[in-house]
Fold these 4 entries.
Entry 1:
Amino acid sequence: MSKKIVLLLTSFVLLWSISINQSLWLDEAISANIASRYSYSQIVNNFSLHDFHPPGHYFLLKFWTSSFGNSVLALRTLSLLFALISIYFIYLIGGLWPAIFLALNPLFLYYAQENRMYAMVSAFLLITFYFLQKIKSATKPKFKQIFLFNLFIFLSFLTFYGSIFFILTLFIYSFFYSKNKTFLSW
């Protein structure tokens, strides 16, 4: 019940904040332009190869805008969705208080309403950490857990190259603090 309240209140705050008539920032407008102007192959060939950011966010944004339009509200709602996913997985990892603290974090709220890849990669990395905890706590990790752990590592890297630092930290943490040494064997 309490996680539903946190998610509901956060949804309300985020929807209210993105409904304030603020136009897109330059980076957000560039993302929207890429999603509407380029095909999927052009995103890879003409844009992503020359940009610091990988194509994952632009691919999903292209799909999102073709489904929901390219209004400011529609564009920013994608990040809001990933912010809510982040709060949910923080709740699963740490409980109610960490979820509340994340939901009230001003920097988190800022990126939760920005049409960029940061809310998406945060959600992917939290899901990665969640499955790492599941794998570490299991005496024999399930294939599904290992698969999803690796899938979200891949999606994180496909969304934001900087996620490699978090991923490396997870492996270092696992190497030194894993009670289940079979975790490292795969």
Entry 2:
Amino acid sequence: MARLQIGYSIHPDGSDLTGTEEGSWHQSWVVIATDSELGDPFFVDTSDPMMPVYTAMHGEGEWIPEQVSTSLNSFLESLLYLNKLSKQSFAQVSPDENTITDPRELAIIERQLQTISGETEYWEYFMEQHREWVEDHE
């Protein structure tokens, strides 16, 4: 877990990268994972007892958090839900016969993720990116 903090709250030389001004990495943010495609961090805000989960674009010069889930528990439930749906064991470059492409099924998945996570915008964008990925490879 400590290794995940490097480049976010901790500089590779060990110095503190956190700050209190807007756009700084907050001391209460703890990285729990990174996006496998983009490298953006997923992090919890430990100053909130619910430990909401956020992501933020890497390499923008400032951190603008986007809420992914209202709590760590609901984030983990979202991941479990996606895992149950998936028949893939690795990240894919292009869709295959196991890729969910049916618009009605994708709409159901999107609503379920929004319900589980308590967050709407992130999952709307997530599913939009999935649809575009499928369309780009048709």
Entry 3:
Amino acid sequence: MGQPRSFNTFVSAIIAIFFCIILINSVGAANLASTETPEIFYQQIEVISDFFSIQNLTTGDGTQLSAYVINGPSQPLPEFQAEREASLLANSPDALLPNFPSYNWVFGCSAVSAAMIAAWHDRGEFTNIYTGPTNNGVMPLTDTVWSTWFDGKQNYPSNPLVASRNGLDGYGARGSIDDYWVASGSSSQDPYITGGWSEHTWGSSIGDYMKTSQSECNNSDGSTTFWFYSNSSDKLHCSAMLSSGVADKDGTYGRMLFYQARGYLVGDCYNQKTDNNSGGFTLANFKAEIDAGYPVLLNLEGHSVVAYGYSGSTIYIRDTWDSNPNNVYTMQWGGSYNGMKMISVSIVHPVIITGDHLLFLPAILK
């Protein structure tokens, strides 16, 4: 027998209140922020490699933050290719998110990683994430359904969920590529600035919200920035990014904005260093994310990947250099991949409330 209508209404109200609390404490919606911009004192950028830099700052209240600038290579580094091929999955997984998308590098590894996660949700119950004309409005498992394009130096795949482009997937105006892209690694001003035209309206591409490749945010072409506490293992929640004045420059905060723009609530939203990098995010935390149906965006020291399964301390990843969903690459938790060690996670949980119950994500294979 069903519950009485009054009981269902009561439960719905409790759930709604619960998620309002999450939004206030974990997300920190923009309209709750102070109208005053916090005073920030920047320090010089420390270049660790061609693909990774750190910038430190101190806010007016003394909080010390560090920006990890991830500028992953558009192709695997040749000296690590044999190691990469050897990492291909050979054994059955303990836990794996099934039918997980696989996209190749375009616009930036962090945006591609975030797009694979968004596509996973779109192929579940979050069906308003991709609404284009391809595949009956369901984001495909691979980007090979779209033709490649050439920027004058290199061929790239097309992926409208990562970055829009004039003529791509029914888009009939300038988009992300037209406005922001010059060439991989370029620090030149964006084309819309030098060309003197208006920036396109964001809506369907997650890379826009993450500020990937945007010169106005000091991101060279291909790079994205993520902020962390400098001297703490704690989570830097999106609400704290907002109050600290760095939200408009952070890739994780941008992921949250994208889901909100597509009509969804967001629960957990934070950056955290991993436990091998003086952080608090552990292998147990990672497994809990996967078991709950949430893929994890992992930042390496110069590259972003998506982890979507595990077997013991081995984790299964999409490395943004392969469009074949049958290829599963692996790395050890706390280890290195392509010569770059694991350093942090970007966590964003989109949420749907339907009637008097929560929407659970697709089940994992175990």
Entry 4:
Amino acid sequence: MDKEKKLGLDYIIDEPYTILADGKNYLLEIKRQDQEVNYTYHAIPKLDKEVFLVAEFTNWRELDLLSGDLNIFYDNTYLGKSKILAEQIIDTLELSVARDRDIQVKRESKKELNDKRFVGSNVKESLAYEITVKNNKRTKISMVLNDQVPVSEYKSVFVELNETADAEHDEKTGVLTWKFDLEPGETKIVKYDFSIKYPKALSYRAN
């Protein structure tokens, strides 16, 4: 049983423990609670070539969590530390569990489809990318894949997203999001391309 305080929790421990007066520190389990969790794999190949396993808790408020450090274990293996900022969580608590090298992701610029031409006093560039994801695990996985297209901050620069392969597009940030499942051994390829038009006096560097 626990009583919530403004800045902490008081735990009433029903089972007595014997603590030796030997000057040593002891760890005691004061509460154990099971919680449903949804595992998804996340990748942003533009920034990192590796894929991360993420645990999503939708009923995290039932855990009475406070902000602070936490230790992460997966399959009884200690993976490291993380941090929870409970006051910043809205709906779902997401914890990055570990990198998983059984999921491969590769991002390529399709240079044969890229184009650059002059249109009056402007330059128009067309750029195409291809992302390949392969599931080398023996189980089905849920994948969340992110990339990003430029967002214009100038009236003289225009960005047009042409092909998105059914991605969700956040127009404010330019972030593209694909969500899909992969069967064991399955490979999925997503493609997208965009055009950017800007004055000759400016320059654009793709990445």
